[in-house]
């Protein structure tokens, strides 16, 4: 089965994916930071049992977190299946995953449950619907920590209320190179939103990929939060698209030159760091979407999928062995050469 | 070249400073550079730090007297043992009871962070119904008390029956 990021979506020239995360806690137990290992482990089993017994159980798989290698765990962080916090936990954790990795339930992250749903492209409604479905399924058997005034009670008061963090992953090379992104970032806080790099808090926006998400979780309904985020993101998408057009009409030759150079480097380079590869792939994505690069493939090309595969841990998994940094950069160049779609000449 | 700050050691670090739009290069020795770095380096702005500074600001407003402040500093959650100071440091609660334990201190901070302190989103299906019934019962009980106080016994009996019916319906008795 294809993973969600290996499938192609139509409307994803700027918005790569939509993600929803619901934070939930069980009423009966202390929050994870105050749990003993025994109780933490009990919660993991309890939740696993409920999910796996539920109607669509065949759809989910239980991952044995203790049996996973550190490399496997980092690879999952790179694919956004789990959070960096989760794999560093000092108490027993559990993970329930759908086959295509679009749905996951982290057990004993900062909260007892973090239900996550990812959809391809511009599709937050679908992501919310899927997360809500799992939430309802669990709630039939679990009594959540919930207060009628404060809503869902979470370990950190910044998540209280809906417990909802909704985000869009966006690719905005035109806004970034023209320096306009800076203005947007400053304005966005006024809407209760925040922008982070591709790998969350503190990470850089590599390959011009950023995540935009809500900060406010209390006082608005889930639908209102998503509507607000969507309308602001729509503005960003429009600005990015019009800037791309402008760049193309005013500086076509320079633009084509840059895109072809990046494609050339991807085709012939023998050593590629992940940062450099991300930048080159970002150029290629832009060139493809603007019709400068035409590929032999008739099917849509999924460049974000390639961006995921060349991250350090996923690359090593692809190669089926651990690699030193220099080896990695060589393996990355080889991998890209072998998987790069050919252009029509 | 000697260090501009201590004028003793040779300058090995060149630091660019921009003050009021004017760029200035200063030459420092290793030791002075480390000290200057500590001075200028901004503290890590994490959500925990942000919360605890908001809490401190609010705390002085809610409990202006030292005595009161001391009292809330020893405030401790009966369920998980979380103290106010521990919460200030971690920015995370230990259990759901913490919300009522530290509610008074926290409420204005939550309002500042979210712009509201009332949840208007999803209500859990199963437990939500129970919550609703409980709320109705609580409302009726306070009406019953009022009615008894005013010696309106007929109305009180009505409330009593309604409470009984709700409790039976919700399986609460």
Automatic annotation (TrEMBL), chain A:
Pfam families linked: ATP-gua_Ptrans
Keywords: Allosteric enzyme, ATP-binding, Kinase, Nucleotide-binding, Transferase
Main enzyme class: transferase
Protein's recorded name: Protein-arginine kinase
Domain (Phosphagen kinase C-terminal) ranges: 14-243
Enzyme Commission number: 2.7.14.1
Family: Belongs to the ATP:guanido phosphotransferase family.
Annotated motif RDXXRA motif of the pArg binding pocket involved in allosteric regulation, positions: 328-333
Activity-regulation annotation: Appears to be allosterically activated by the binding of pArg-containing polypeptides to the pArg-binding pocket localized in the C-terminal domain of McsB.
Organism: Vallitalea pronyensis
Functional description taken from the UniProt entry: Catalyzes the specific phosphorylation of arginine residues in proteins.
BP GO annotations: phosphocreatine biosynthetic process
Annotated binding of ATP, by residue: 17-21, 80, 114, 165-169, 196-201
GO molecular function: ATP binding; creatine kinase activity; protein arginine kinase activity
GO annotations of cellular component type: extracellular space
TrEMBL record, chain B:
InterPro entries in UniProt: UVR_dom, UVR_dom_sf, YacH
Pfam families in UniProt: UVR (PF02151)
Molecular function in Gene Ontology: cadmium ion binding; cobalt ion binding; copper ion binding; zinc ion binding
Protein name: UvrB/UvrC motif-containing protein
Domain of life of the source: Bacteria
Lineage: Bacteria, Bacillati, Bacillota, Clostridia, Lachnospirales
One record GO biological process: stress response to copper ion
UVR domain boundaries: 134-169
Cited SUPFAM superfamilies: C-terminal UvrC-binding domain of UvrB (SSF46600)
